[in-house]
Structure formats: structure tokens, C-alpha cells
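INFO batch 0412 | record 1 of 1 | parsing
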Amino acid sequence: MNIYKSIPAGLLFALLSLVIAANASAHCDTLDGPVVVDARTALAQGDVTPLLKWVRADQENEIKAAYERTMAVRAKGGEAKELADMYFFETLVRIHRAGEGAPYTGLKPGNSVDPAVAMADKALKSGNIDRLVSVLTTAMAKGIHERFQHALEAQKDADKSVDAGREFVEAYVVFTHYVEGMHGQVKACGAHQGEGGH
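INFO prediction complete | emitting C-alpha cells
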């Protein structure tokens, strides 16, 4: 079975968007996420400009001021440099998150990154998305098939007893809510794109 043909393009896009967009926020607040990686480079090269893409235009001055303070303290070396860097990473990520309308809950270790988001990063670096698409569509198809099969089996005995009927209803609700949730994401992503979102 060709998995690409078995899943509607809109649903696939919504799944990719949901996984990447929902987790991208969390990914950006990790120590090896793209925001902090760019910040390390900017501090090493002495140029704040590449970091400005991570914040809204009205937040630029705050980042530039934090950058200047950080560079001044970094010059002292040692522990002062480490503390200054961490201050800057936290400031940049907090402001970036605020620009997304998301709360800042602190910097997290790199191993907290969702595997799908890590794969998305690798896909961007390699220029090839096939592996990511395959993993996500396989997982989505598996989720649908498992819930469907459970509901289908439970449906066969649904009228044999109240308990059997309840088991079917529970399986039915899980299955239909799963599908409904995916469809809702398809509609939401479509509407968001139509409004010129990204």
C-alpha cells in the first residue's frame, strides 16, 4: 500500500503542521534548539543581527540592549561569561516566546526536544522530508487503524449485553474523537493559511 496515496494531502499537511507547530514552541526553548544555537553563534561572532529574525520588530531594541549588556559582561571571562550567556539565552527565548503568544517556562535541556521536531530540523538541513513524512504518516495511519479495529470488534457484540454495549460506545467515542480531532486540525490549518498565517 502506498501510504502517500492512502492519506489525503490536507490531512497529511495538518498532521505535519500540528506536530511541528505545536512542538516548535517547545523546541525553541531548549539549549540546543535553533534560537539558542543562533544566539551562541551571534555571541561568538559579535553580531546581533542574525538573531533579530527570532523576535518581532517592536522587540528588537530589547534584544539589542540585552545583547550589548551580555557582550560587556562576557568580556570579563570565566563564570561571568557563562552567566552572561545564560542570561542572554533566557532573555532571547523569553521574548521570542512572548512574540508567539506563548509562556516562557525556562530553558530546557536539548534531550527534551520532541523526536518529530528533531526530524523536522534534520529534514531542513538535508533538504529531504521523505523520512519525516513516512514516520508521521505511518504513526497517523496506525492510530486510525487501531482505533477503528477496536471499535469494529466491539460493535459485533454491542447488543449482547449492557457491558458489551458500553465497551462499544467507549471504543466508538475514542475512534470518532480521534478522527474528529484530526479533521479539526485540517480545517484549522486551512483557515489559518487562508488568513495569511504561517
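INFO post-check: Residues 5 and 12 are 10 Å apart (CA to CA).
INFO record closed
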